[in-house]
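Example 3.2
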Amino acid sequence: MYQNIFKKLIIFFLLVQFNSYGQKIDKIVSMKRLFILFIFFFSYTTYSQTAEEYYNIGMQNINNSKFNEAIENFTKLIEIDKLNSNAYVNRALAKQYLGQYSDAILDLNKATEINPKYALAYLNRGNNKQFMNEDRSAISDYSKALQIEIEFAPPPIHTYSYIGRGASYHKIKKYKLAINDFNEAIKLDPTYPQSYFNRGLSKALSDDTTFCGDFKKSYELGFIQAKEFIDNYCN
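Structure, written as tokens:
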């Protein structure tokens, strides 16, 4: 019944709609809340002041959308400490914002090689694979992030991993599995509007007529893009 309503939409939840060069990330629903998870548990006790400076400047570069400069600073840090998994993850994030998904994946591969329990690295690798439409491989990475114990993966990482995996399931038309993942994301964080919106899209495409309730909840929680769908399909 609703198979043609959202057929041109690919849902996702992570990046702003435009990168620093104004290039549109094609077919991604925009959002206000940026997903930038930085790990600040990193200790510099065994590194020189120069390494700490490169790290701090690189973080500032990312926060100021100076992604090329961030890549340069994290690269210098890696030259000092080739086993710094945080440097690889944050350099990958800068590359991701520039649309350099393949290069970002290489950095995330290295991060998981150094630290196999680095849940954020698996999550971000899944994100980059999803942007490259490698959804089945992305699902594997999101699943790995979800398998890591909570002490190594704070609750937001699990929430976003469920949403990311749900988005990939949606893209390969496994709508029931997508709905299940969005359900889990909502259990972990019932205040995140995109989870409801994405679940509504998957419900609509699986002929679940309760999708309007999810669109309305998403709008109530501040996702203004849901208003168009409510006006067009719920009245």
